[in-house]
Every structure is written in C-alpha cells, then in structure tokens.
Amino acid sequence: MKASALVLIALIAGLATGCGGSKHASSTSRPTATTASTSADAEVVLRRAVRDALNANHRVAVQVLWRNVVPSGAMQSTRGPALTSLRTAAANRRRRGIRVRMLSDSYRIVSVRLDPSFATATATARGLQRVQPYGRDGHPSGHAVSLDEKARIELHRLANTNRFVVWRVTLVR
Questions:
Q1: How far is CA 165 from the centre of its chain?
Q2: What is the pLDDT averaged over residues 106-116?
Q3: What is the percent of the chain with per-residue pLDDT over 70, rounded to a whole number?
Q4: What are 122-126's contacts with CB under 8 Å, separation 24+?
Q5: What DSSP character marks residue 140?
Q6: How far is the C-alpha of 62 from the C-alpha of 22, rounded, in Å?
Q7: Domains (ranges, CATH) in the chain?
Q8: Nearest C-alpha neighbor of 51 from the set 158, 171, 163, 167
C-alpha cells in the first residue's frame, strides 16, 4: 500500500512539473547541463584534439625521415618552430644524401596538460625506435641504431576551434 502511494505521488509530481506526455513544451525549463559538466566535456574534447595533433605530427616526422621532404599537409598538425626544425633537418639530410628508414617504432604520449585558458597545451611523449640510415646509393649506411627519445611538446590551439598544432618540440634527457 505504501509503495503504490509513493508511486502515485511521484506520478502526480511528474505531471505537475510538466513531465507528462504532452506534445507541447512544458512551462518550466530544465537545465540541460551544468557548467561543471560542460567545462569537463570541453576539456575531454580538447585533450583528444591534443592527442590527435601529437599523433599526426609523429606520422609526419616519420615520413620526413625517409623522404627528406616536408609534405604539404604538414601544417595541419605542425607549425611554428617545430615545422621550421622539420624543414631544416630534412634539408640537411637531403644535402648530405642520407635517408632514414624506421625499422620499429613505439610512440607513446606520456602526459597531456591543458593550460587553464585552453589556448595552449604541453605534452610529454616518448619514442622507442630502431632506425637504419641509408646513403645516396640506396644501400644501408652503417648499422641500425636504437633510439630512446623523450620530448616536451608545446601545442597551440587554432583560434576558436577544437584543433591544436605542435608548436615547439624540446628533447628531454
């Protein structure tokens, strides 16, 4: 008896607040999301954008190692001093006649920190790689080399979009 009375009260309360099956809009407004959850959702989206930019930048860097040319689409993920460094390194290897082939690659994003303004982000990434240098003749030059690199990466947000680009890469010892 008590349970059915509680269900009846809940049903009446629901109808009174405009939660009935009416096709018309209710007279009371219900909040769709709180500021805290909206802010948390935005942060999740931006963290994902940072990770996407980092992974895209890594793909470009691996491509530049072998081809010694920065692809035209590199600006989608990399700009500023980071893009300048990629171009300079590619030109130096091209001038010396060296190409680098990636034999194995394990790239891991260790941490991502968003600035409170959401305009910049800082990330730390670690790359375990095995690479083989090649000479002008297309034959391997020397032995394969194992690398264990850790980098601090600064990213900038593009205007008011949810996209970030890698701005500066600093190797950490």
A1: 9
A2: 97
A3: 79
A4: 122/152, 122/153, 122/154, 122/155, 123/50, 123/54, 123/152, 123/153, 123/155, 124/150, 124/151, 124/152, 124/153, 124/172, 125/54, 125/58, 125/150, 125/151, 125/153, 126/150, 126/151
A5: B
A6: 59
A7: 36-172 (3.10.450)
A8: 163
Query: pTM value?
Result: 0.76
Residues 6+ apart with CB under 8 A from 94: 68, 69
Partners of residue 145 on adjacent β-strands:
131
Q: What pLDDT, in 10s, does the model give residues 149-166? A: 999 999 999 998 999 999
If you count DSSP H runs as helices and E runs as strands, how many of each does the chain have, helices first?
A: 3, 4
At residue 8, what is the residue type? L
Q: What is the DSSP string of 62-119?
A: HHHHHHSS--GGGGGTB-HHHHHHHHHHHHHHHHHT-EEEEEEEEEEEEEEEE-TTSS
Spatial separation of the C-alpha atoms in residues 89 and 161, rounded to whole Å: 30
Query: Two tokens at 4?
Result: 């059915």
Q: Which tens digits make up the pLDDT trace of 1-43?
A: 444 333 333 333 333 334 444 444 444 444 444 455 677 788 9
